[in-house]
């Protein structure tokens, strides 16, 4: 067999299982295309080939069982693919990448993870991939990146990282991501990295966004604002204290007049209350009420007689 010969098994449809040493006889195999299959079981040594000649492995749209990613991780570890240069895992509904998943691929240069369901990157995910040149993470469901995820990407150095076409949430919580985009040495597809929300920033590029645009206040500005508020409160307290002192001083100067006014008000209220008290006693005493009724009756009779005499 020629050393430059590339083998492809893409024409084999509906492959559901990769047994141990499935390709061990192909000692000159350089490229293996298993895309568009339905792999449910991958043996730990399924990709084991004497001399580890494999350089390209295409598993696009091929992992159709929830255990397949775990099986693949084990296979990448046990199959001795130290010479693998290109790995395509696109379109496999991957939700997470286990730490160290690619640590046994020290020569890997291109890694395609597009069209999956990745929401985060964990520390150590790309450990030992010091020769990586291209990392494609487009068309996943990243809304932001945690600090350790950015450190993991930063550790890859000056490589091409594709992060576009993800639903980034452009709120204050993403400010550290914006800062990373502005400062990173990585070659990021910045034109495709855009806000999916909020409404006012939709389809806006993340790189170059200011803290004010995403609703954040610069720490220095925040400290200045806090100091200004504290100064305002202190000034308001001093003003109110001064007003109180002036009021007390005015009262002190007019203490005699105030005392006279208070005494007069007290006497006036006392007279009013005594009048109401007397009226209440008259109305509540049944004897006085009977006399009052008789007086009213006699006055009524006198009035009737007077009208009769006039007539």
Strand-residue proportion: 5-15%
Please tell me the overall pLDDT.
Answer: 82
Strand order of the largest sheet: 2-4-5-6-7-8-10
The number of helical segments is 6
How many strand units?
A: 11
- Which H/E pattern describes the elements? EEEEHEEEHEEHEEHHH
Look at the helices and sheets and give the structural class: alpha/beta
Structure summarized in a few sentences:
This protein is an alpha/beta fold and 311 residues long. It has a domain of 90 residues.
Task: Show the helix and strand layout.
Layout: E1 17-18, E2 31-33, E3 41-42, E4 56-58, H1 68-78, E5 86-88, E6 110-112, E7 134-136, H2 147-155, E8 160-162, E9 168-169, H3 175-183, E10 187-188, E11 195-197, H4 219-253, H5 255-284, H6 286-310
Parallel strand pairs: 1-3, 2-4, 4-5, 5-6, 6-7, 7-8, 8-10, 9-11
Protein name: Trophoblast glycoprotein
InterPro entries: Leu-rich_rpt, Leu-rich_rpt_typical-subtyp, LRR_dom_sf, Wnt_signaling_inhibitor
Pfam families: LRR_1, LRR_8
Describe this structure in words.
- The chain crosses the membrane at residues 233-253.
- InterPro entries: Leu-rich_rpt, Leu-rich_rpt_typical-subtyp, LRR_dom_sf, Wnt_signaling_inhibitor.
- It holds the Pfam family LRR_1.
- This protein is α/β, with parallel strands linked by helices.
- The protein has a domain at 221-310.
- Helices cover 38% and strands 9% of the residues.
- It contains six helices and eleven strands.
- It has helices at 68-78, 147-155, 175-183, 219-253, 255-284, 286-310; strands spanning 17-18, 31-33, 41-42, 56-58, 86-88, 110-112, 134-136, 160-162, 168-169, 187-188, 195-197.
- A seven-stranded parallel β-sheet has the order 2-4-5-6-7-8-10, with no helix packed on it.
- β7, α2 and β8 (160-162) form a beta-alpha-beta unit.
- Mean pLDDT is 82; it is low at 1-5.
